[in-house]
Structure formats: structure tokens, C-alpha cells
Design brief:
There is one protein chain. With 351 residues, the protein is an alpha+beta fold. 28% of the residues lie in helices and 28% in strands. The chain has 8 helices and 16 strands. The chain has a 6-stranded antiparallel sheet with strand order 7-3-4-6-1-8, with no helix packed on it. Helix 6 links the parallel strand 10 and strand 11. Helix 1 crosses helix 2, helix 3 runs parallel beside helix 4 and helix 7 packs across helix 8. It starts with a helix and ends with a strand.
Length: 351
């Protein structure tokens, strides 16, 4: 807004009736106009134009979006903490508050007892939320707590279950789904939205009568477009069981990943390198796949032409002379319970 106390005062003076009232400063009328214009100018200076967008799901961000969602009973999914099972060795005894780590990423062990065998398998919980705690197998090997009689620690399997806080984009989509789609408390959309409300789930669909009358199959895809762990399936199932109406036999399972393998021959522009072209193409392909629809009763089409266009968008690609997806020169139809993942990508330069 360009409204200022000065411009408001001028407009108010010009609007006075021609009845002899004086708007000169110091007069009764002039002082009243001055006080009102100053207060209105102060209000406009607070940039009230930004207040309206903060109250709607399509335009609100951050904490404002949280408030909009909470009004509709939709809450942002918070980050979760990765966990791992570690094998730890040392002097027999009871231990509490032990920290172990994979480089700078620390994990707190549950209280545990080492018996006469000299080892124990213990749950370790990462001390920071998010995907950073999903460390690889064999990387948790440092005992961070000093002055103990513990000798070694190792995680024989990768840590899992660490998910990032839901982004504004993802959260906004769920809020709008709640507002715009029909939810009766027990229809397919209800099950889909219940599954999506669990941290770690990025996409979901529900199929009724999937295994006969009275059955509902809920298919999910974990964050980062992957098949997650069994704990996530259990969390989704337990949450749905806690909120659904009686009468249905519910199964929760992961959708089936379909690898998308791309082989292409390209003409490079001057100064372009095949390695950079490949990396940039994989990034574009990943974005396309991450936004790929996962919709009830629809066999999605993975577009051959879209994939070729993505390759043409890469800096340094002058032309694409040949491209195949999964050894086909045509689009791929995915089954209803499948979703695409990036497979093997081979890019070579035309002779």
C-alpha cells in the first residue's frame, strides 16, 4: 500500500464540506483529521496486504500454514528419529545413558545388561531427527561415552525410520485434499488421508474389496519414493485401526517399485561432458518420478516423450539420436499398485 498519513490527511481535507470549517492545524477539525490520519497511516504501515494470504491454505507458509491446517484437523508431520540395533561388547553389568556414534551422528542406547556372553543387542536412537540418522550398516562403531568398561559397538544393519519434517508443499496438498475431497469417515479417501498423515508416508491409495467383500488394501510409498521398513507399515496400520470405523479388514502394504532404466545416445554441445549430462539428467528424471501420480483405479503412463524431453533440457545436449526405456521405444504403463523408481541410466555420445 502507498497510503501514508500525509496522503490520507490531504484526502480527508479535500473531502470536507464547504461549510466554513477550518482544517488548519490547531483548529478543532484540523486536529481531529491529523490524529485520525496518523493512526490510519500507522495501520497501513504494518503492511496489511500480507495478512489476508496468511489465512488461506493456498498462500500461507510456515507457522501460518500450521494454523490453517490445524483449524481443519490436519497437522504437519514432524521429523522422526532413526533407529538401529547395535551389538555392543564389554564387561558384564548394567549400563545406562550410553552414547555411541557414526562420526558426528550420535545415538543413545536403551538401558541394557551385558551378561556372561560379553555382548548384547541394544536399540540405538539417533539424537537428531531426519534422514541424517539413517546411517549405513557398519558405521556405528564409536563409543562416545567416556569412562565405561565397554569395548566395541557395531550396527550390522542400516539405521532406519528417520524422516524429515513435512514441507509446506506436501502439507498444503494434504490440507487442500481435506477441504476439497469427499471424506465420509470410511470411504477410500478417508483411508488414503489417514495413511498420508503418518510421518514417513509420501503417497498412498486405498483399494476397496481388494481381497473380497469387507476388505480394504492400503498401498503406501515412503518418503524419497522408496519402499520403507516394516515399522512404517506397522505405524500406518496402527493409526488407521485407531481412527477407522468398524467393519473392514484392513491390510497395509508397500506399492511395488518398477525400475525405470534409460539408455540414450546424444549429440553433445561444445564443451559438454557426458558425466555431467548424465548426472543432470538423473536429477531431472528423479524430479519427474517423485511427482509421478499415484491415483486410485488409474494405470499411470510413464511417458516416453517426456523422458526424451527431459534429456533435451539438459545443458550441453544438442540432440537425442536414440533413447529407450526398459528396452522399449514407447511409453510404459504401470499397474495400479506400481510406482516408478530410477534404475540404471546409460548415456553415450553419438559417434
Amino acid at each position: 500500500m502507498s497510503e501514508t498519513a500525509k496522503s490520507i490527511l490531504k484526502r480527508m481535507k479535500n473531502s470536507l464540506p464547504d461549510n466554513g470549517a477550518s482544517a488548519i492545524e490547531g483548529t478543532f477539525t484540523g486536529n481531529n483529521l491529523l490524529a485520525v490520519s496518523n493512526e490510519l497511516g500507522r495501520i497501513y504501515s504494518q503492511d496489511i496486504d500480507t495478512l489476508l494470504p496468511r489465512g488461506f491454505a493456498q498462500t500461507a507458509t510456515g507457522d501460518d500454514l500450521d494454523k490453517v491446517g490445524q483449524d481443519d484437523g490436519v497437522f504437519r508431520k514432524e521429523a522422526t528419529y532413526a533407529e538401529a540395533i547395535v551389538t555392543i561388547s564389554g564387561t558384564p553389568g548394567r549400563y545406562s545413558g550410553i552414547l555411541v556414534g557414526a562420526d558426528n551422528i550420535r545415538f543413545l542406547l536403551d538401558d541394557f545388561v551385558i551378561g556372561t556372553s560379553g555382548t548384547a543387542d541394544v536399540r540405538a536412537v539417533c539424537q537428531i531427527p531426519g534422514t541424517g540418522g539413517n546411517v549405513s550398516a557398519g558405521t556405528i562403531k564409536e563409543i562416545k561415552t567416556q569412562g565405561t568398561t565397554l569395548d566395541t559397538v557395531i550396527n550390522n544393519q542400516a539405521a532406519h525410520g528417520g524422516y524429515e519434517r513435512e514441507s509446506d508443499k506436501e502439507y498444503r496438498e494434504r490440507i487442500l485434499d481435506k477441504k476439497q475431497k469427499i471424506v465420509t469417515g470410511s470411504n477410500r479417501e478417508s483411508y488414503r488421508q489417514w495413511a498420508l498423515s503418518v510421518s514417513g508416508v509420501s503417497k498412498a491409495k486405498a483399494i476397496d474389496v481388494f481381497n473380497g467383500p469387507g476388505t480394504v488394501g492400503v498401498y503406501i510409498i515412503a518418503n524419497n519414493n522408496v519402499v520403507g521398513d516394516t515399522e512404517l507399515l506397522e505405524k500406518v496400520f496402527e493409526y488407521i485401526e485407531s481412527v477407522r470405523t468398524v467393519g473392514a479388514n484392513v491390510s497395509v502394504m508397500y506399492a511395488e517399485p518398477l525400475q525405470i532404466n534409460v539408455t540414450a545416445t546424444v549429440v553433445l554441445g561444445e564443451g559438454a561432458g557426458i558425466a555431467n549430462v548424465k548426472n543432470d539428467f538423473i536429477n531431472l528424471l528423479s524430479d519427474y518420478i517423485n511427482d509421478f501420480p499415484f491415483i486410485y483405479k488409474r494405470k499411470a503412463i510413464f511417458s516416453f516423450m517426456k523422458t526424451a524431453d527431459l534429456l533435451l533440457q539438459v545443458d550441453g545436449v544438442a540432440d537425442v539420436t536414440d533413447i529407450v526405456i526398459n528396452d522399449l521405444d514407447s511409453s510404459i504403463t504401470l499397474e495400479e499398485t506400481q510406482f516408478p523408481v530410477v534404475g540404471e541410466v546409460t548415456i553415450q555420445e553419438a559417434e
